[in-house]
Amino acid sequence: MNPIHQEAVGNRFDPQHMLHARERSWAALHGIRERMRPGITEDEAKAEAAKVFTALGMERLWHPVIIRIGSNTTKTYRQRSEPVRLGENDIYFIDLGLVFEGHEGDVGDTFVVGHAPEQQACADAARELFRVTADAWRHQGLSGEALYAFAEQQADATGWRLNHEIKGHRVSDFPHSVHKAGDLGEYGERPSNGLWILEIQIAHPTEPYGAFYEDLLTAD
């Protein structure tokens, strides 16, 4: 596919609105985090999320709210969760796709409640893997394909299993899907600033938990 088409935007596109959508989406994610408590189910957490979105003035969702708890943190967005409640010492992640001012935010992060040092190490590893991969994009000019090859090497070197089904994607003024850009991990050019989401999902190689982190690739 023509890389120019893959990075096409609509007539309403504004880079500052993209950054605003990103900031508001992170505010929403942390608002949901404040409502997470032992005993809550994923569906109950999503109901709490709706209250957060209303308070922040979200216009709409562009993808369903994903909240994964415990062993469900190893599942991809296409897989259905098993019924589970957040334990006293447990891990969960939040994945949001929200629209503010006609532009798409897409953020995700992983958290631990109670005392779960191994799960915390996994959450920290996902954030660090995102950081070093984003830095490789900034400083080495890597293509989307090369970015995920880099992420896999880094994950292997630190003892985590990278989920190969999660490969990032475009965002823009809503709806980005009109551009049919494909996955970041299949993009053969260097991704432009402020148009692509880098997604990282890892799992423990033998234990039933994982972690997720995603954010907009930006030059700063």
UniProtKB/TrEMBL annotation:
Annotated protein name in UniProt: Xaa-Pro aminopeptidase
Hydrolase recorded as keyword: yes
Alphabetical keyword list: Aminopeptidase, Hydrolase, Protease
GO terms of molecular function: aminopeptidase activity
Domain Peptidase M24: 17-215
PANTHER family on file: AMINOPEPTIDASE, CYTOPLASMIC PEPTIDASE PEPQ-RELATED
Species in which this protein is naturally found: Dyella japonica
Taxonomic superkingdom: Bacteria
Signal sequence interval, chain numbering: none
Lineage start: Bacteria, Pseudomonadati, Pseudomonadota, Gammaproteobacteria, Lysobacterales
